[in-house]
Amino acid sequence: MYVRLSHHGRVANSVPPRDRTDQPWRSEGAPPPTPPRRRTPGWVWLLLAALAVFGITNLALSFFGEGDERNLSYTEFSRQVSDGNVARIYSKGDAIEGELKDNKERFTTQRPAFADDDLWAQLTKQKVTVTAEPVVEKPSVLANLLYSLAPILLLVVLWVVVARRMRGGGGFGAGGMLGRKAPPKPVELEVGRRTTFADVAGIDEVEGELNDVVDFLRNPQAYRRMGAKMPRGVLLAGPPGTGKTLLARAVAGEAGVPFFSASASEFIEMIVGVGASRVRELFNEARKVAPAIIFIDEIDTIGRARGGGAAVGGHDEREQTLNQILTEMDGFSGSEGVIVIAATNRADVLDPALTRPGRFDRIVHVSPPDRGGREAILRIHTRDIPLAGDVDLTQVARTTPGMTGAELANLANEAALLAVKRAQHQVTRSDFSDALEKVQLGAERALVMPLEERRRTAYHESGHALLGMLQPGADPVRKITIVPRGRALGVTLSTPDADKYAYTEEYLRGRIIGALGGMAAEHVVFGVITTGSESDLEQVTNIARGMAGRWGMSERVGRLSAIPGDAQQAYGLSAAPATLDAVAHEMRRIVDECYESACRQLEEHRPRLDALAAALLENETLEEEAAYRAAGITRLAKE
Questions:
Q1: What is the CATH number of the domain that holds 205?
Q2: pLDDT digit string, tens, across residues 22-63
Q3: pTM for this structure?
Q4: Which of the 8 DSSP states describes residue 265?
Q5: In a domain, 203, yes or no
Q6: Which one of 28, 254, 461, 586 is the catalytic residue?
Q7: Adjacent-strand bridge partners of 491
Q8: Can you give the residue range of the structural domain that contains 111?
Q9: End of a domain among 388, 410, 441?
Q10: Which of 5, 160, 411, 448 has the CB geometry, 3.0–4.6 Å to 405, for a possible disulfide?
Q11: Measured at the alpha carbon of residue 162, what is the angle toward residues 161 and 164, in degrees to the nearest 5?
Q12: Cβ distance 96 to 136 under 8 Å?
């Protein structure tokens, strides 16, 4: 029973950011990356290209701009004036601009300084107009500059927009998977101390399994001298919230080796082959800094059994990624010192090639913690919470069977939040009790029920509680309330004094009788059946189905498992129709017998039922001692 969420682990070992958008893993304890070779910044190349284009454009504009004017020699100009073919001219100094009459052609010429001719007389004689403004209008320097830069600026803007879009698309930019990739770099992010087994509570059984991995990473030579090889992969299987990720980090921290972690879903992309490429890159990085640990979370995302109809030819992205993982793990030799740890809560759906010896050849089951483990976990999560003197963590651990480390951490946090809302300086026992009710039963609802509805609800909950008190070996009743919580109008909370791992037929029948107590009380007292027993009947059906079809507690069905244990498998596929009919018949028989027993006991103990319901109507909520006292049943005598 092992829950492993650590308060200090969350603070000192925060999840490192990724170095690149296409790098799906994070790493701890890896050596700092080699400084990359200095490259010319991209903006320098962009500026040089812009200057080159500007120069070429300016030359081209200058060349084409001068093609409209004709350079005349002064001799030719004098002849055109004599022939009367000059329409007008403009002169500035010795430079002359003008326009011919024949073809409206514009020209320029230069009057030599030594020329001694009667130019003004000839111009006057031929009636040539001498203008005050230039005949050939040339754009200014600013206009030339704007004309030249306009296409360049447009080109630059287009270039920047396209580059950003491609980089943001995660596959076509400078750092994209299909473009030029930057060299991969491990991330060095260890600021505080790393997570070790001291930060993980309730792992006595699992620690023994994982200590082999730690010892091999610390002292590989001893194993090599004996010809021993470590498992290439360790699969952590267990329900959500039991601390599988924290365990993997604790193994790496205990051994003092780099820790690469990634979620399996982060390898998958729409482009086929990207996931396999990322897997190769991750394993190459781990080999560079070996010994190291690679942790893949939720491996069932890509590790499901192959051969389904979803893939065309069995070569979709998920299967290619899985094949690459299998290949990389197969390629390990015992001297590489790279161990793969994976976590899943669906070990039953994994591909057999993944769990065979030589790959994930060691499976460690991580279960919810026992009472001692829960107490140790609560002490870890309350290190920074000021606790009042009446808080007994041993009692809290006793009343929280089946809760995982994540749920216990949430319980401690909810208690602290309640203390803040109540303006207290310490977390009290009442805060923990109310937080446990909120976590297990749901938040209170401000629902005003009619008196008759409250009375029927009080008898319903009293029926559950009284039968739970009367059944030998049943779980003790901890609290009864008719305050609406969550979807329920009332709740009866019963939890065992100690963790149970196997259940007898007598205990299961007592559970069914207790669950049917609410319906039986309504039938005995009011002669009606309401919809308030829906969740009770669901619980009864599941227990009865297990007794008849899975646990061999029916003589008619026999000692066999007729119903699959996996809830996601279609019901009835593993048994013949006649066997399923027998299971249904036995389920009905068991439930009918238990319901008759519930009604008979409530009729026999009707005064106790009335007394308990009256106390519940008066107080709305009864704790354990008050409930047993109201029913007139001695708790010690019952035990």
A1: 3.40.50.300
A2: 555 555 555 555 555 666 565 566 667 667 766 676 666 565
A3: 0.63
A4: G
A5: yes
A6: 461
A7: 481
A8: 70-130
A9: 441
A10: 5
A11: 65
A12: no
